[in-house]
Amino acid sequence: MSTTQKSLPKSLLVQGYEVVIGFETHAQLSTQSKIFSRAPTAFGAEPNTQACPVDLALPGSLPVMNVGAVERAIRLGLALGSHIAERSVFARKNYFYPDLPKGYQISQFEIPVVQGGEVSFFLGDEKKTVRLVRAHLEEDAGKSLHEDFVGMSGIDLNRAGTPLLEIVTEPDMRSSAVAVAYAKELHKIVTWIGICDGNMQEGSFRCDANVSVRKPGEPLGTRREIKNLNSFKFMQQAMDYEIRWQIEQLEDGKAIEQATILFNPDTGETRAMRTKEDAADYRYFPDPDLPPLVIGRDWVEQVRSEMPELPRVMAARFETQYSLSEYDAAALTSSVAMGAYFEVATKASGQPKLVSNWLAGEVARRLNEEDIGIDRCPVPPEALGQMIELIHAGEINNKTAKEQLFPHLWGIGKQVIAGNGSLTFHTASGAIKTIAVSLNIIQTNDSSALEKIVTDVIAANPKNVDEFKAGNAKALNALVGQIMKASGGKANPAQVNELLKAKLN
Ligand code: ADP
Ligand code: MG
């Protein structure tokens, strides 16, 4: 099956089947050192230069809890409205693998540190909520390196002991599109609260998608778990392929066997890695080397007082403070940078709704075109704000702003970013108006000059005039367009309409 296959529909049934998806996400916590040792967590070092005796599982070495990892777990719990356990327990998950020299991974099993909570987001203009089961602290394993050129495999234990928070959802999602939107929202939250750098290429945020299908009303189907999806695009492709595959199996009268599978981005297919083991296979038991993790309420309150304003709190504030819709407020809080940009531009213009429209429209379009985020927008928020103020005051019209002033500001900003000498972007009060004046696009409210243009355009376009008189309202737009053009975009469209109608009637 090709990877360019069209995505499955956003919800509803697929060939009469309901899709059920639950996610397990491993967020690598942004601590300097490992979860149970002092070795550094930095990515990309020479193999085995960042593994200390604890990470190497040397006999006699003992794990010591990293306070920073616990604090980050508390932050996530506070951000998602979860219960933060006063007492949670570390457990050994036993299995053999060359990259796990201890023979067990330290994780949390029966009593995780973060319990419950939820993630809400928009898919299009539909609001979705996904419930969380839990989030638990655990250590990462090392990595096998297959050195084909020397015909050997090596083990790099730099990653061993890197702190992870595994965030587990209920099987609440009913389409691959909802699941991807959930993953994007979770990614936004963990980066927003500063607990994870979110770098997906480096594996700092990887998702396992549990997928099953069933006929509506039937009990949950058997799931297969697609491991280690570290790009939103692959996530969608992998789930869509898997959903189709499972439906095909069932339609052929075959049963789905629970399994752990891998997605191959080159072929766009999923394939079984191993049949799924049960929790019992891991012989979980409390780790005798680590005492229970105790989190006092005063610590939770301390962390709460240091949290940034959360996306949903900021969104609620935008709704009331700026009279915006829930949908607009959600879009404007898609990142810390977006929220900040919006507020600065609004302060400069006093026009929150117009700023919101520009950010969702022309600004988003240009950013997409150049594949950059709002944090790298060439037009500073003060400049956009001043431009919007000019539009609102009727000094320039919206169309001219879009076609001339905004692209001009964009161009200046790009030169500034490219570091052309000492060029800076001036955004002192009145700076953008000065630019608009120099571009000669300030609207004229000189009606005698405009009247002459209107008379000329009417005389030059008898066909449009006749059509308008015959009842074709669209013919008026053609005349307005001509007049705007003849005025160099400086005419006030409302005034043009008025004059034109007065002359034609
Ligand atoms: P394990 O820890 O053994 O992987 P869990 O029962 O904790 O198993 O579930 C792991 C993930 O699988 C959770 O996100 C859960 O929501 C999801 N899940 C469970 N049952 C199903 C199912 N039938 N279809 C899809 N997802 C499921
Ligand atoms: Mg699992």
Short description:
By secondary structure, the protein is of the alpha+beta class.
Give a description of the structure:
The protein is α+β, with helices and mostly antiparallel strands and 505 residues long. The chain has 3 domains: 18-297, no CATH class; 309-438, no CATH class; 447-504, Arc Repressor Mutant, subunit A. The chain is 40% helix and 19% strand. It has 16 helices and 17 strands. The chain has helices spanning 53-56, 67-79, 176-192, 232-251, 297-305, 311-322, 326-332, 336-349, 352-370, 381-392, 398-417, 431-438, 447-460, 462-469, 474-486, 493-504; strands at residues 18-28, 83-84, 87-88, 90-94, 104-108, 114-115, 118-123, 126-139, 143-147, 152-156, 163-169, 205-214, 224-229, 259-264, 269-275, 285-286, 293-294. Strands 1, 2, 6, 7, 8, 11, 12, 13, 14 and 15 form a 10-stranded mixed β-sheet that branches. The longest helix is centred in the middle third of the chain and has 20 residues, at 232-251. Adenosine-5'-diphosphate (ADP) binds at residues 20-24, 168-171, 210-212, 220-221, 223, 279.
Number of strands: 17
What structural class do the secondary elements suggest?
Answer: alpha+beta
Present as ligands are: adenosine-5'-diphosphate, magnesium ion
Determine Rg (CA atoms, Å). Answer: 29 Å
Overall number of structural domains = 3
Number of helical segments with 4 or more residues: 16
The fraction of residues in strands falls at 15-25%
Helix fraction bin: 40-55%
